[in-house]
Amino acid sequence: MKRITINDIAKELNVTPSTVSRALAGNTRVSVKTRELVTQKAKELGYQQNVIAASLRKGKSDTIGMIVPRINRHFFSNVISGVEEILNPAGYTLVIVQSGENLIKEKKAIDMLLANHVGGIILSLSVQTNTYQHIETVINRGIPLVQFDRVNLDIKSSKVLNDNFTGAYLATKHLIKSGYQRIAHLGGARSLKAYDERFKGYSKAIEESGRLIEDALVYENAITREAGYKAINQVMERANPDAVFCAGDYSALGVLDALKEKNLKIPEEFGVVGFANEPFSELIHPTLSTVEQNAFEMGTRVATAMIKNLEGKHYEEEEVIPTRLIVRDSSWKK
Amino acid sequence: MKRITINDIAKELNVTPSTVSRALAGNTRVSVKTRELVTQKAKELGYQQNVIAASLRKGKSDTIGMIVPRINRHFFSNVISGVEEILNPAGYTLVIVQSGENLIKEKKAIDMLLANHVGGIILSLSVQTNTYQHIETVINRGIPLVQFDRVNLDIKSSKVLNDNFTGAYLATKHLIKSGYQRIAHLGGARSLKAYDERFKGYSKAIEESGRLIEDALVYENAITREAGYKAINQVMERANPDAVFCAGDYSALGVLDALKEKNLKIPEEFGVVGFANEPFSELIHPTLSTVEQNAFEMGTRVATAMIKNLEGKHYEEEEVIPTRLIVRDSSWKK
DNA sequence: TTGAAAGCGCTAACAT
DNA sequence: ATGTTAGCGCTTTCAA
Predict the structure, then answer these.
(1) How far is Cα B306 from Cα A288, in angstroms, rounded to an integer?
(2) Which of A43, A94, A116 to mutate to test the interface with B (most CBs of B within 10 A)?
(3) Of the candidates B78, B253, B280, which has its C-beta nearest A72's C-beta?
(4) Number of helices followed by number of strands (H, E) in chain B
(5) Is A334 a residue whose pLDDT tops 60?
(6) Average pLDDT score over residue span A109-130
(7) At what angle do helices A32-45 and A6-13 cross, to 10 degrees?
């Protein structure tokens, strides 16, 4: 079962491959008649362009590489959907690779994508990433880069970010308004800007209310359910909180575990707000107040930025996607 | 910033590109010394193979295409992880495309992958798919195909399936043993084998217990939360069930909504078992009994089957991955 | 408006 | 053990 090439079409029509190539590309320097003839014959023979050959010749491809820490996270899989929504209709193909939150795998992923001559790379850094030469390589090769969510600000590229600061600020302010007095914060690794911003949003709200940031109320690096459970227990022992803003829904889950164990009433005796609006957050009991990140929209913006880069070059805007507080049963206090 | 090619290496070393190519491929017909020289120079110059050129020349590539209905489903994203786990270390690259449960997008995805000359295609059919020429095309092109989960049995290819039948059988049997009398079933589209098998497993267990399959207790095509809610309300009106086996966790969620609305005690007055072990199933209240599908393992098996196809050709085994009943609070009755 | 010719970077048959 | 040569399928100058 040999594949049909432009040469086959050329022979059948007694023209040259060049003409066929041009006709197929819709080049107006080919007569309308010939173009029609070619298109029709192509369809008749079941011709399909050999993208590989084309991109070898052109030195670039319409394949875009995307590196994410994990594909099975609600946030990332929705960003991916958003990216595809824009990229596919525009004629681009998306290759997705997982770094698994691992620097070495991230480097390999970039190597692989470069070896495959992708037209551009979309990247969200792994937690581990603390060295950036592999990313500079992308820039140096002149390949468009769009960073999102977990970005490195020093690297020159388009960036699409969540408004983590405002999300955290609103969440904390909401806890304050609800009447909670001693509001704790379970954060993530502050080396990542996303988590640092959430901490800053928390701090701003606390300070605005005329209170002090107490170190004893803040716990860094607790983003899993287990870590959240342990962290809140420690904070409760040392700082007597009556509410907590968690930098992630999973740690909030751990907090709920601990509170139930202690038979504390939620939200009457203790308020909880998470971050990310994971699907489970509205399914658990009590339903979890949280911050929505608009992952899908982020994806569409990322893709749009990539296309601009691909077309015009040197589009280095930094976009911020708004976040939105969702108040549910874990924090609303009459 | 020009890329280093084998020609550059060849010139520097005063050998021919062929030698470099062979050396890089580890061909033993090149002297050990030359091989070392080449490898070192390649590293020195920062050489990176141009995969595009290689695969144009070889007429095939190490890129494997994978088409799934949705990437943001727990099951599929975990299958993907499993596939990557095997494929990446083996030197293959995975391109993931979503069909969005849409036949037209599925066709386009296949076209795209074929145009990109992928070495093989991994596929799980969309719900809509009822025509199969586009898949035959893959076979006719001689490109290895591995189907998983949502497969078409008439198409000749490797297949990896869940043991839906046994999962459903065990789930239903568990409800029977727990003492429930009138066990309903909310199923999916029976045109998909997966859902048909679940229905059959349910039927077998019911019959074995000496009861009859009552049409009024069975509801087809309810796999979302909303559909589950509506379906169970209808079934309760017409057939007086005291338990239900749902073909999916989402419909089970809808069932729980309805039961809570009616103030029925779970599991005392009504038992529920779902299917898929979605992450939320152990987070909701009551925790949901369900059937685990071992998505990750399925992925590793799929990848292994693909590699066998890639190497030996015509490996058309049909593998079945065991499922496992997980009993939680929604069904255990003392 | 079309053709001729070259070449993207690599591999593989066929020498030597 | 290495070199020569040809060509994968396409695009793109340059020429006509």
Answers:
(1) 42
(2) A116
(3) B78
(4) 12, 12
(5) no
(6) 91
(7) 120
| Tokens linked to A324 | 């939105």
State the Cα–Cα distance between residues A232 and A252, nearest whole angstrom.
9
**Nucleotide nearest residue A5, measured CA to C1':** D9
Mean pLDDT of A278-282: 93
- Specify the residue for token string 């994410």: A68
Q: How confident is the model at residue B216 (pLDDT cuts 50, 70, 90)?
A: very high
- Whether residue A160 contacts residue A314, with contact meaning beta carbons closer than 8 Å, is answered with no
pLDDT of residue A73: 86
> In this structure, are residues A185 and A207 in contact, taking their beta carbons and an 8 Å threshold?
no
Cβ(B239)–Cβ(B280) under 8 Å?
no
CA distance B88 to B65: 13
Is the pLDDT at B314 greater than 70, yes or no? Answer: no
Question: A279, A280, A271: which is closest to A327 by C-alpha?
Answer: A271
Among B113, B85, B88, B86, smallest CA distance to B99 is for B113
In degrees rounded to 5, what are phi and psi of residue A63? -95, 130
**CATH T-level fold of A164-293:** Rossmann fold (3.40.50)
Mark yes or no for CB contact A56/B50 under 8 Å.
yes
The average pLDDT across A153-161 equals: 92
Sequence-distant (6+) residues with CB within 8 A of A244 are: A183, A184, A185, A186, A232, A235, A252, A255, A270, A271, A272, A273
Q: Could you give the CA distance from residue A133 to residue A128 in angstroms, rounded to a whole number?
A: 14
**Distance between CA atoms of B120 and B331, rounded to whole angstroms?**
43
Every domain of chain B and the residues it spans? 6-49, 59-162+294-323, 164-293
pLDDT at residue A103 greater than cutoff 80: yes
> Domain spanning A59-162+294-323 has what CATH number?
3.40.50.2300
Of B61, B126, B125, B124, which Cα lies nearest the Cα of B94?
A: B61
Contact B71 A74 (CB under 8 A): no
The residue to which tokens 């077998």 are assigned: B204
